[in-house]
């Protein structure tokens, strides 16, 4: 596929090259990530625009909907353009109340991997992240059993690369002692900086760090310092927040989500903003 120039350039996940500016598909499902979107045609248009813009990294999960976003991705883009990489996650399911109960037993993980394969319409998954913890964040404890189950599926040829999500630094190290890890996906943004040391360590190892909720999630980032930098640069606060992440470390990959073509384009343009040393100094104080 044709990869246009996007903010941040590219990164290599194992042997897979992706644009550092990616797209997160979670918002394509219905309210609270349950059920179908109100505008299915609009959701398909967003996915096609992702590819048209040259983005080669789409983050998804069969738990979104559930099954909704993966089926939308398949409907919009299959057969997939060469170079497009679909990254999914397993380790949680959905209940009728919209909750995210864990699903980390080996049998549950096998089922989740096969559901992702079926709904995306592929024979092998490019990258699977094991999601741990809960909605409040990471929880300590060994990941050996669930991660080992994914390693077995990888050896069977169903998964190319492995990552971990919603994890502690200790869990990252434990996973790395079991099998290669090509990315870590945790909550991180201008105002939530708990993983600063982990990001720097992973950068030295050549491992990607993929922040979820890069713009604050369900509660958008709000800060006087952020607003001041945005006003000085004649940009939106969200543009500044995305640009800051790309400049924070070369191993950070962005996956901002949206259900709007216009907003998707705004995110791409905004992330290309070059922040000055003064801007970075002011923004660095927000999370400290």
Write up what this structure looks like.
The structure is a single chain. By secondary structure, this protein is an alpha/beta fold. Helices cover 38% and strands 15% of the residues. The chain is built from 10 helices and 9 strands. A 7-stranded parallel sheet has the order 3-4-5-6-7-8-9. Strands 1-2 form a two-stranded antiparallel sheet. α4 (144-155) links the parallel β6 (125-131) and β7. The termini are far apart.
Q: What secondary-structure arrangement, pairings included, does this model have?
A:
Blueprint: E1 10-13, E2 16-19, E3 23-24, H1 40-52, E4 57-59, H2 68-77, E5 85-90, H3 106-120, E6 125-131, H4 144-155, E7 159-165, H5 169-178, E8 183-187, H6 196-205, E9 208-212, H7 224-232, H8 237-248, H9 261-271, H10 277-284
Helix pairs in contact: 1-2, 3-4, 7-8, 8-9
Descriptive terms for the model:
single chain; 288 residues; alpha/beta; seven-stranded parallel sheet; two-stranded antiparallel ribbon; 10 helices; 15% strand; globular
How much helical structure, as a percent, in the residues? 25-40%
How many helices? The count is 10
What kind of sheet is the major sheet?
7 strands, parallel
Q: In what order do the strands lie side by side in the largest sheet?
A: 3-4-5-6-7-8-9
Number of strands: 9
Low-confidence stretches: none
Q: N- to C-terminal separation?
A: 41 Å
Mean pLDDT: 94
Provide the gyration radius in Å: 18 Å
Net shape: globular
Instruction: Give the strand content.
Output: 5-15%
Oligomerization category of the chains in this entry: single chain
Determine the structural class based on helices, strands and strand pairing. Answer: alpha/beta
Q: What is the helix/strand order?
A: EEEHEHEHEHEHEHEHHHH
